[in-house]
Design goal:
The protein has 424 residues and is mainly alpha-helical. It is built from 17 helices and no strands. The radius of gyration is 22 Å and the shape is globular.
Amino acid sequence: MPRTIWLLVAARAINRLGAFSLPFLTVLISTEYGASATAAGALSAAFGLATIPSRLLGGRLANRLGRRRTIVLGLTGCGLAQLGIATAGSLAAMAALTIVLGLAFELYEPPSQAMIADAVGPAERVRAYSLLNAALAVAGTGAGLIAASVGRWDLRWLFVIDALTCLACALIVRLALPADPARGPAGRHRERDEPVHPWRDRALWAMFLSGTVFALVSMQIMMALPLTLDRLGGEPADAGLLFTASALTIVAAQPALRLRCLAELSDFPTLALGYSLLGIGTAGYAVAHTLPLFVLATVVWSLGEVLVMGRVLSVVADLAPSGGTDRYLATYGVSWGIATAAAPVTATQLLERAGVALLWGVTAGTCLALAAAQLLVVKPLITRGRARTCRDVRGATFSASTQETAPAAASAAAFPEHCRRRAG
């Protein structure tokens, strides 16, 4: 992988290693300021909602300010907000800083994902995004260990350490990543002047809707697994062991992505296979009653996540026109903000009203429906959308070259990647 990929992965892993404070935000609000559980939950939900405009803003700023500047701005904002949370003297200050943290929290993602898309060819994007996912999984395991030790001392120090990792990550990015390209007088990068309208792209909408369901399933697993173990008379803390097993599975499965049978499998059969494994694994939770069975089910759905995570980002990046990768990835990423806000409600309500077996049965059925939708709905929509886009771009290229208003080569540079592959 190119040096840029490794730098982004390393910086993101350092940042993720410190990202153990957020699960304790509600506890800090309740214990330090005497807020009710309802008020603490509302503030946590406000944080989740603030991440949605943060993701969209990250895509816009990457296009206008530059990717490196946007990444540094987002990480620095997170670090300063968390230092503020650690030293806040009132509930009102805590509430304001929590929202500020949410608004800065996702600025990093669109430009970093777009840099990965541009640093490697289309054939390597799946592996590059999967490598990032694996690094985050391993760092998340380390984050849990740090939280377990530091959190026993003082919850505020969790936010201090998290802030320091954000600032360290920002420094690495600022010093090690290539500088942003020069900007034209309009404030935009010279090579990114083409208008980009991601919300008008039906193909992106197809990916966004299925991605939102996938994100909801992923967040629901995180929320409902400890509650499930508690309902079955087990130890909720064992969920940490299961998440560690998931991280190890994601890392161990990375070499499999280079196997010919997987590398040459096209996007939507791969996504269908990944969602099917997610469905089988979560169905295993519905019948598991011992820790080894929970571990086995975790390994199965984690293999499905390996196939899905890298592939969906690669497909979205492939759909984007030249200079629009940031905006497309930012738009798709809104799905995770929606899921973060919705998952606590869906997971707890299903568990309370339907019980453990039906909770995971519904989750598994959703995953299998997603698998079928990839082949029956998403693939036809994206195939038609790609064909229509390529026809429009070819027409614009021909018109520009015949009218001599712009060189044909310059217009061809605006081809989305999938058009280039279809053309040659």
